[in-house]
Amino acid sequence: MKIVGVLFDDIATPHSQGEAVPTIGSPVLDQVVAAGHVAGDSAFPVARNGGRVLLGQPPRDVGTLAGRIIAVMTRTDRHSQEYLAYLKRLGKPMPSVPDVYYLENVGETGEGEYVRFASTRPSSLDAIPLVEQYWKVHGTLF
Question: For the domain that residue 83 is a member of, what is the CATH number?
Fold first, then answer.
């Protein structure tokens, strides 16, 4: 059988023994709200250049996504018109700065980086890119 994608759900499939198994459906598909286009090879082999990622609404508390793959759109500051998009794994928050998280690389190449999520508190960390939008990644299509 040809593999057309991978779903990232937490539901154990009977007889899977922790391995990938063929499926014709999953409850995680009901959570998909959009698809994103993958550009570049930094997320390979998790997501291929030209492929798609299945995106879902993020929870209000970004910390609940720790260790999960997320899609993030950032800009350098509130006044910038330049946006950058990433497919990364949400790492740990910066010590003593709970709104700043490390985004870990998910592929074979590329680097991680720090980003800051919106906060009502004033920030002296303007050099760290500001997250405009983020989504939980539910899977990839090849």
Answer: 2.10.109
CA torsion angle 130 46 18 67 (round to 10):
-10
Instruction: Give CA 74 to chain center in angstroms.
Output: 12
The residue assigned the tokens 């998909």 is 32
Instruction: Return the amino acid letter for 136.
Output: K
Domain containing 19 equals: 5-141
Record the pTM.
Answer: 0.85
Q: Is the pLDDT of residue 120 over 60?
A: no
CA neighbor of 98 nearest in space, from 76, 119, 71, 124 = 119
- With tokens 């609404």, the residue in question is 57
